[in-house]
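> tool_call: predict_assembly(chains=two)
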Amino acid sequence: MTLEIIVMVKQVPDKQEVVIDPVTMNLNRSLTRNVTNSADENALEAALRIKDKTGANVTVISMGPPQAETTMIECLARGADRAILASDRFFGGADTYPTGLTIAATISKTGKFDIIFAGEESSDSSTGHVGPGVAEFLDIDQITYASSVEYEDGHVIAERELEGGTEVVKVPLPVLVTVLLNSNTPRMQTLRRKIDATRKGIEMWDHDRIGLQPEWVGVRGSPTIVRKMNPIRERERAAKKIEVSSIGDLVDELYEKKILKLEDE
Amino acid sequence: MSEFDAIVVGAGPAGASAAIRLASSKKNVLLVEKSDPPGSKNVSGGVLWGNGLSAIIPDWEKSAPVERFVDTKSVAFLTQDSKIGIDFSSKKLEQKKTGYTVLRARLDQWLARKAKEAGAMVINGVTVEKLHVEDGRVTGIEQDGDVITSDAVILCEGANPRVAINSGLRKPLSDHDVAIGVKEVIKLPENTINERFHLKSGAGFACEYVLGYLKGGLEAGGFLYTNKDSISVGIVVSMSHLRKNNATYSYNMIEEFTAHPYIAPLLQGGEMQEYSAHLVQEGGLRSIPKLFGNGYMIAGDSAGFSFSNGLVLQGMNYAIDSGIAAADTFAAAYDRKNYTENSFKSYQDRLEASYVMRDMRTFKGIGDVTWSPFVHKKVPAMLETLMMGLFMEEGRPKKHMTRMLLDALSQNDMLRVSSLMDTYRMMRRM
C-alpha cells in the first residue's frame, strides 16, 4: 500500500516587506510579496524525504485566496504529487478554529491519509494552532515541534526539541507532525519541475466540494474577535555629544546623567 | 519535436513583449525569469518613451501601471553652486504623451501577467544557465542538468547577459560597455510632488543632469523622475571612470548629488523606500553583438540597445521594439519551419529598418561626448561664468553679449582649436 502523506502549507506575506497601515492598523498586503511560509517548506521537505525512500504520495493542502496558487505550484515544483487549495469566499476572515476544521475536512475528503505534516507555525500570525487543531478534528495522534522525522514500519520516529534537551518519540500511523523551522534544507525548484507543475496545475475546492456549511467556516465560524491592534511605536533615541578629557570623566559624566548606575543602587 | 516553439529568457520589456507577441499568434512559448516576481530585481525607474507597447497591448496607456506622463522634460548642468538647465514644458506633451515615468517592479509584473493571459507559460524564480546547442544550432536551454527544448531561443536578459556570455554569443562585458546606475526611490505625498514640481495631477517631471562637479572629478550623469507618490533619483557613472578612481564610491556619489543645493530641496522630507544599483548598457553601436544565429536571437539590453544621447536616457523603447521584431522574425521562420541563421537574418533587417538600429547608428560614439571632460567640466563652468556675467549688476556699463560669451569661453580655457573641435564633434554626434 502506498503511503499517503499530506502537507499543510500556507502562503504568507514576505516578512521583510510587511507594512502596517498606520490608519487601519491592518497588515497592508497589497504592497507585499507573497511567499510560502518557511516552516511549511521544511514540512514539505520532511515529507519528500519519506517519499524518496518509500515512494509515498505527497498531497499539499492549503486554505487561502486564489493567489495562493503560486505557493501550491511551488510545492508541486519541489516534488509534491498533488495540490489542493481550499478556496472559497466563505472561508475568508477565519481564525485558527475554522481554518483547522476546513483543512481537516479537506484532508478527510482526499480519502486515506497516513502522515500529515505541518510547519510549527506561520510567520504572519505565529499561533501554532492549526496543525494541532487538525489532529484534534481528525482525532489522530500528533507530534509537535519535530526537528527530525523518520518513517519506519508503520511508525513515525521523531525527535522533538524541548527546553533543556530532546525527546525521541515513536508513534503509529496515522499521525500529524509539526516540523520546526529550519530543521532541514528544502530542495530547489528546477525549471523542469516548475514547467511540469505549471502544466499539472492545482485543484481548487470550495465549501461545497469539501462538504462544509458556510456558517461553520470563515469569519462566521470564528470564535475570536480582534478588538484592537496596537503597533509598537519606535521610541526616539536621544543622541548627545559629551565632551570629556578622560575615560574617568566620561564615567562620572554618565553616572551623573543617570545613564550608568552602580550595581547596588 | 521540441517541447516549446520558442523560449524567451528574461521577462523585462524586451522578453515580455516578445512573449506576448508570440503567444498572441498562438505560438507555444515559455517565458523564464530569474526574479520572482518579475521586475523585483530591476532597478530602472525610468521613463518609458514611445508607444511601442501599442503594437501588442493596444490599450496599454489605460491599463499599464504607469506613474505620470512626462509633461516637463529638463536637462541641466550642475556645478558646485549652480544649476544651469533647460526646461521643456508643453501642452503638446500632454496631448501626445510621449513618455511615462514607470516603476519597473510594477510594470514588469504587469507585462508578465499580460504574457500569461496571452497564453505564454511564465516561470519565475529560475535562473537559466546556458543555451543548449546541438550540431551548431541552439535547440533549447539548460538548467540544473535538464534541457528544455525549443525551436528557437530569444535572449532578453537585460544589461548583464549571463546566458549569452556563458554560451559564447557575447564577449564578457568590458568597462567601456557598461555604467553603473544607483537609484533611490524617495516617498513623498502626491500633492507635495505636484506642488514642488508645478505639476498637474497625473503630469510628471523628468530631468537628466550632467554632474561634472562631483568629488574625485568623476564624470557622472544624474536623473530625477517623478512617480505618482515617489521620486526616482540617482546617478549613472561609467565603469571605466569608476575603475580609474578607486577611491570614489558610487554610493558617495549619489549622496553628493542628492545633497546638491538645487536637488536636496526637491527631495526634502521624503522617506527613502528603495535603494538599489544595477548595470546600465552604455557601449552603443560598438558593443552590439551578433544579433542572431542558428536557433537564437538577442534583443533589448542584452543586445546593447540602450544609451543616453545626453538629453534623454533610453532603453525600454528599444527593448520593446526589438522584442517584437524578434517575435515577428520567429513567426516568419515558423511558417517556413526553418530556424537557421539564414532564416533569422530578417531580424537584423527589421531592426535596421526601424528606429532601433538607426538610432544606434545616428548616435554612435555619443558616449565619447556624454562622458567627456568637455561636457562635464568645461561647458558647465563656462555657462556659470556667462550667466554670472549676464546677471551681475556692478554699476558699470555692461559688455556686449558676444564679448561676454568670448570672455566666458576664454576664462574657462575653451578658446582653443581643441575645444572648437570638441564642440564640432559633439554637435555631429548628437
